[in-house]
Specification:
463 residues, mainly alpha, 3 domains, 17 helices, 2 strands, 67% helix, globular
């Protein structure tokens, strides 16, 4: 096991670096593997986590900066650079979605200023705002690199990332489903069901499963490889015993199939794809109940708990999340409903000490507490506009352009739904990579805009 924990991440790292010789986007494998962290044992490669005094998110940002410098040859003289005059943060912003994102960044700066004025403590305010600052710094670094890459290279990178995630999904299934002790850490929960000891862990869950599902759903052709990716990914979701993720996977499928159905020449393919996936799910369900009766029975009992209350809102877990939002709403008070509490420390605003442990259940807790209703409205608008952008590009595009837009549309749908049950982009270990999906969206929007301009007649370009 010790050999596996070192060999797997080392092999993935070497593969990404090897591919980066010809396709520079593969340098991004380093921060993406750091994002995956424990699910692929990347935390075992100690050189990436020094100096030890830095936090995990500090290390991720540090390596993202290093990759960005290498990507654009910024340490080389101009005459030796691959791109002579690189746009290191990418071309002009895509309106309106990136304008909204810039608005969120501006609102964070305003809230930071308000907090400093209230408490006269710039250092503490910056410490509390660090995660949000990293969020936007990381976004523009990713944006610059992804906008420089071609669509073909981007799709190659996403494909390899999904295959790495499939390896993580397989390991997670073996660990949590078959109880082979692969990961060396404390379980989140240990319980007994049908006379068998079951465990629940979220630390080791594959991080890109919703992207992997969107990729499988959106593919025009399916070989054995992608059927296997779909099966392994769904198996990992099954043994996570997480009802919300299974529901999100279903909504992702429905959203992507509806886009395919909206294009008349793809309706037949969409129907066949939907029926194929349903057939796979039926077979998987039957196998699961035969081979893993205790695990499947426990998951079924959790589903029954959600439906047995008589209404969706009656589910205890959902009620818990609603109660947390109500609690935060009460903490920030009428004067803070629109602006939130900014970046006050726990000593300056004692209820804020509870936000970190509450945030893991839904991203809207820290977002509402810090940025108020204005911040919440801006984040909802960002998801809606970025999703609409990809939906439009999927409907109007063809071939690889259509496929990539459809994958990103599905990933955004999944990410937005997951934000109601997880801290998603505000994971404290991964702030700098929190907006990676939006950076991919921005890069594809920039490519499509450039292609539209290039297709214009010369006389219009001259005008």
């Amino acid at each position: 096991m010790h050999l596996l924990r070192l060999a797997l991440p080392a092999a993935l790292l070497l593969y990404f670096v090897w591919r980066a010789r010809r396709q520079r986007i593969f340098l991004l494998g380093i921060p993406f593997l750091m994002y995956a962290s424990q699910s692929l044992f990347f935390d075992k490669l100690k050189p990436f986590w020094i100096p030890g005094r830095l936090s995990t998110t500090d290390h991720v940002l540090m390596w993202l900066v290093i990759v960005w410098i290498l990507y654009f040859d910024l340490l080389l003289p101009t005459r030796w650079r691959t791109v002579k005059r690189p746009r290191v943060f990418g071309p002009a912003l895509s309106a309106p979605e990136e304008v909204v994102l810039l608005g969120i960044a501006a609102w964070v700066v305003i809230e930071l200023g308000f907090t400093v004025l209230r408490f006269s403590d710039l250092g503490s305010a910056l410490g509390e705002a660090k995660g949000f600052i990293y969020l936007f710094v990381g976004y523009f670094l990713l944006r610059g690199m992804l906008c420089q890459a071609s669509r073909d290279d981007t799709l190659d990178f996403i494909k390899v990332l999904i295959l790495a995630n499939t390896a993580a999904a397989g390991l997670f299934f073996l660990h949590q489903g078959l109880h082979l002790h692969l990961y060396d850490a404390t379980e989140y929960k240990v319980l007994t069901f049908m006379g068998q000891t079951l465990t629940r862990s979220f630390t080791f869950m594959p991080q890109f499963s919703l992207l992997a599902l969107a990729y499988c759903y959106a593919r025009r052709d399916w070989g054995l490889l992608w059927v296997g990716v779909l099966i392994v990914t769904l198996a990992a979701l099954w043994v996570s015993y997480t009802r919300s993720l299974l529901a999100i996977a279903a909504v992702e499928l429905l959203a992507i199939l509806l886009v395919r159905l909206s294009k008349s020449h793809q309706a037949g393919m969409a129907i066949k794809r939907g029926l194929s996936i349903v057939a796979i799910l039926v077979v998987l369900g039957g196998v699961a109940f035969v081979a893993l009766p205790a695990q499947s029975g426990y998951f079924l009992s959790r589903i029954h708990m959600a439906t047995g209350s008589g209404s969706v809102t009656g589910d205890p877990n959902l009620q818990n999340r609603i109660d947390k939002l109500r609690t935060v709403w009460g903490w920030i008070g009428p004067e803070g409903h629109f602006t939130g509490q900014g970046f006050a420390t726990a000593s300056q605003d004692p209820p804020g000490a509870n936000i970190p442990w509450m945030a893991s259940d839904l991203v809207w807790v820290p977002w509402l507490y810090r940025l108020g209703l204005v911040g919440v409205a801006l984040l909802v608008a960002l998801y809606a506009l970025a999703g609409w952008r990809m939906l439009d590009l999927a409907v109007t595009g063809a071939d690889d352009a259509e496929f990539l837009a459809l994958v990103l549309f599905g990933a955004l749908v999944g990410s937005f739904l997951e934000s109601a049950v997880s801290w998603t982009l505000l994971n404290p270990d991964r702030y700098a990579m929190g907006l990676w999906a939006f950076a991919l969206v921005a890069a594809e929007a920039c490519r499509r805009r450039a292609e539209s301009v290039a297709s214009l007649p010369p006389e219009l370009l001259g005008a």
